[in-house]
Each structure stands twice: as structure tokens, then as C-alpha cells.
Amino acid sequence: MVLLHRANLIAVTPAGSVPDDLRPFIDFKAAILKKELTKDQQVAIFLIESTSCYIPIFLEKQTTVQDIKDELAAQDAEMPLNQEKVIEESLRGLSGEKKK
């Protein structure tokens, strides 16, 4: 059994609103993905518990909660269940779905 690190969601925000101290994490991830960022690009930012490591995940209309879980798992991290609802609502907002 592999123990995963807890990844706590700290923000879902447009890239243009990311604080300066977190910006390098966003820019690094965009460079790895060869993604051109816009100020309106939605990004979920996770903090690995007991570290100063942040994992940004770019959110698109087609992104699912499972996509986010998979991306975190690839980095040996997992999102607490209680934070899934926040992500689900953010993703619904991107796709234009009404709040349930």
C-alpha cells in the first residue's frame, strides 16, 4: 500500500489573480505543459500538507474531479474527500452548469 500525501485545496482562481509568491509554481507547470497562460485561465492550487510544495492544476471545461485526482496521484498526493465538492462546483461553473 502506497501512502499518499494530503493535498489541501487552497484556491481556485484565475491565473491573473494568483499571488506573487505562488506565481513561480503556476509558471513552471505551464512551461512543462507548454501551455500559454491567460489571466482568465482557472487554476486549482493545492498545498501538500507539512511542506511548502504547491501543485497547480489548470481547469478546463472538460476537466473532471477524476482528472484532478489522477493528476494528484501521479505526484503521490490525494485530495481530501470534503474538498471534492468545492472542486465540483468550480468545474460546474466552468462548464456553465447550474448549481445543484
Give the helix/strand layout.
Blueprint: E1 5-14, H1 23-33, E2 42-48, E3 54-58, H2 65-73, E4 77-78, H3 84-95
Parallel strand pairs: 1-4
Antiparallel strand pairs: 1-2, 2-3
Structural class: alpha+beta
The end-to-end distance, rounded to whole angstroms, is 36 Å
Q: β content, as a range? A: 15-25%
**Number of beta strands:** 4
Order of helices and strands: EHEEHEH
Rg value: 13 Å
Shape: globular
Characterize the biggest β-sheet: 4 strands, mixed
Which residue ranges are poorly predicted, with pLDDT under 50 across at least 5 consecutive positions? Answer: none
Indicate the multimeric state: single chain
Task: State the domain count.
Answer: 1
Please work out how many helical segments DSSP would assign. Answer: 3
